[in-house]
Write a structure and sequence with these properties.
6 strands; 2 helices; mainly beta; 134 residues; globular; 13% helix
C-alpha cells in the first residue's frame, strides 16, 4: 500500500551538498585539469552528520597518483552546516595498474565498491574546454 506521496529518487553518486563542498576543497589541493578519474563510495549518515569518501587519480609523467578525499558534513543540530574535509595521497604506480591501485584504497567494513563517476559531475566543462571552478 502506497503513502500517496512520491518518493524522491536517490541522488546520483557524487551529487549533493556534501560532495559539492568536497569538490571545492579538492580544487584547492590539486589542479582540476590534471585529474584523470573519480570514484565515490556511498555516503552514510550517523548522528546528524553525512560522511563521504572519494578516490581521485591524476597522471604524473608515466605514473598514476591516487588520492582520497573525505568529508563530514553536519546536517542537524547546533553545528548544522559545518563541513570538515581531508585530502591525502595514498598511492602511486604505473598507469596500467589503475584497477589494482583503486582496489587498495582502504574501505570501511562490508562496504560496496566505489562507483566511477564522470569528472564533469564535480567540475563541469565550460565552452573553452576548461573545467568550471565556480
Amino acid at each position: 500500500m502506497g503513502t500517496g506521496y512520491p518518493l524522491a529518487a536517490p541522488p546520483e553518486p557524487g551529487a549533493g551538498a556534501g560532495w559539492a563542498l568536497l569538490a571545492e576543497a579538492v580544487a584547492t589541493q590539486l589542479p582540476v585539469a590534471d585529474l584523470h578519474g573519480l570514484w565515490v563510495f556511498r555516503p552514510f549518515r550517523r548522528e546528524g552528520k553525512e560522511y563521504g569518501t572519494a578516490i581521485l587519480s591524476r597522471v604524473e609523467g608515466d605514473r598514476l597518483v591516487i588520492y582520497t578525499a573525505r568529508y563530514a558534513h553536519t546536517l542537524k543540530g547546533k553545528k548544522r552546516g559545518e563541513f570538515v574535509s581531508e585530502f591525502a595521497e595514498v598511492g602511486r604506480g604505473p598507469l596500467e595498474a589503475l584497477d589494482e591501485l583503486v582496489a587498495l584504497v582502504p574501505k570501511r567494513t562490508e562496504e560496496e565498491p566505489p562507483v566511477q563517476i564522470p569528472l564533469e559531475r564535480w567540475y563541469p566543462v565550460e565552452a573553452d574546454g576548461a573545467p568550471d571552478l565556480g
